[in-house]
């Protein structure tokens, strides 16, 4: 018998869950049930400034109310920093990382200067690509600055990483923002030299997702379409680190009445608010078209 498919829902405890989270969680849970697969919950709490234990407790409560059950123990990313460190060491040994010491203000200033000269590219989330020159610091200068104790982020040398990885694709069972589906050609370069270890935490969203999906044996990644483009970076890391590739299904985003993507503070669509207003779990399924 082949091993069962493994699904996951991976919220960040930096706010209360809303209908968009309910949609992702239920799509994963229902899909796992349909194929007699496993359903895992993962707490993505690497951001020490925004994640709080009361939000984590609320995630368990809200998902339980929706009728979702998950395997325990739950993987909490902040408990596994050594796994991300090990991956960073491998990437560093391949010569794919460099330290970047600039402050946010310095980066904003550099972007402004680039924009004054012409159009400076932005990533799929709308943030300007890294404009700095940290990649060309000599090894000696990098070492000298590290020894001063100056904080730094570790960035991926995207050009070299892409050369090493060659052509990359992924299997999309849902669709991207322009209806892309099937075998997708990954274009991680649109993200520039992404940060893989932040100044304030020794990992990043992209790195920890790629590592955890592999360590947890995730076969099916079902998540919102806002993460479609990020998949290119995840596939790049999987390829370089010899990790297995899941299949992906990016689903429609739930939007508010004004057509905007829901945010953690979107009160009217918060699961707690809906529950307090008398909504049932069936009612939530109805609202997101999952009855
Ligand atoms: N933690 C991410 C979020 O809350 C989701 C990560 C993923 O599904 O890949 O948006």
Give a description of the structure.
By secondary structure, the chain is of the alpha/beta class. It folds into two domains: 1-79 and 254-291, Rossmann fold (3-Layer(aba) Sandwich); 81-207, Alpha-Beta Complex (Glutamyl-tRNA Synthetase, domain 3). It contains ten helices and ten strands. The protein has helices spanning 19-34, 53-65, 81-93, 104-117, 139-147, 158-165, 205-215, 230-240, 271-276, 281-287, and strands spanning 6-9, 38-43, 75-76, 97-100, 153-156, 169-172, 182-185, 195-197, 220-224, 247-251. A three-stranded parallel sheet has the order 1-2-3, with helices on one face. Strands 4-5-8 form a three-stranded antiparallel sheet. The protein has a two-stranded antiparallel ribbon with strand order 6-7. Helix 7 crosses helix 8. The longest helix is centred in the first third of the chain and has 16 residues, at 19-34. It is globular and about 60 Å long. It binds glutamic acid (GLU). Glutamic acid binds at residues 10-12, 44, 209, 223, 227.
Distance between the termini: 31 Å
The CATH architecture assignment of the largest domain turns out to be Alpha-Beta Complex
Highest CATH level, the class of the largest domain: Alpha Beta
Strand content: 5-15%
Taking Cα atoms only, what radius of gyration do you get, to the nearest Å? Answer: 20 Å
Attached small molecules? glutamic acid
Can you say what the CATH homologous superfamily of the largest domain is? Glutamyl-tRNA Synthetase, Domain 3
Number of strands: 10
Low-pLDDT windows of residues: none
Integer average pLDDT: 95
- What's the arrangement of strands in the largest beta sheet? 1-2-3
Sheet with most strands: 3 strands, parallel
Question: What structural category do the secondary elements indicate?
Answer: alpha/beta
Shape: globular
- The percent range for helix content is 25-40%
The number of helical elements comes to: 10
Listing every helix as H and every strand as E from the N terminus to the C terminus, the arrangement reads EHEHEHEHHEHEEEHEHEHH
Q: Count up the domains.
A: 2
């Amino acid at each position: 018998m082949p091993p069962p498919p493994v699904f996951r829902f991976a919220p960040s405890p930096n706010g209360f869950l809303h209908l968009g989270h309910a949609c992702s969680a239920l799509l994963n849970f229902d899909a796992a049930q349909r194929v007699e697969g496993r359903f895992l919950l993962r707490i993505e709490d690497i951001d020490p400034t925004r994640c709080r234990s009361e939000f984590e407790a609320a995630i368990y409560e809200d998902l339980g109310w929706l009728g979702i059950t998950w395997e325990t123990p739950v993987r909490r990313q902040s408990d596994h920093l050594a796994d991300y460190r090990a991956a960073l060491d491998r990437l560093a040994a391949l010569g794919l990382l460099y330290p970047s010491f600039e402050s946010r203000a310095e980066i904003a200033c550099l972007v402004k200067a680039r924009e004054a000269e012409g159009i400076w590219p932005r990533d799929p989330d709308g943030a300007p690509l890294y404009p700095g020159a940290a990649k060309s610091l000599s090894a000696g200068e990098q070492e000298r600055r590290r020894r001063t104790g100056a904080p730094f982020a570790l960035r991926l040398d995207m050009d070299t990483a892409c050369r090493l990885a060659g052509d990359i694709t992924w299997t999309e069972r849902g669709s991207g923002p322009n209806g892309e589906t099937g075998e997708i050609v990954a274009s991680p370069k649109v993200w520039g030299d992404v940060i893989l270890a932040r100044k304030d935490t020794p990992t990043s969203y992209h790195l920890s997702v790629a590592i955890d999906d592999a360590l947890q044996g995730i076969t099916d990644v079902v998540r919102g379409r806002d993460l479609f483009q990020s998949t290119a970076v995840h596939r790049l890391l999987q390829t370089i680190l010899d990790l297995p590739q899941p299949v992906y299904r990016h689903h429609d985003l739930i939007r508010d009445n004004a057509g905007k993507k829901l945010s953690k503070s979107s009160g009217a669509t918060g699961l707690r608010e809906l529950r307090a207003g008398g909504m049932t779990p069936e009612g939530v399924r109805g609202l997101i078209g999952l009855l």
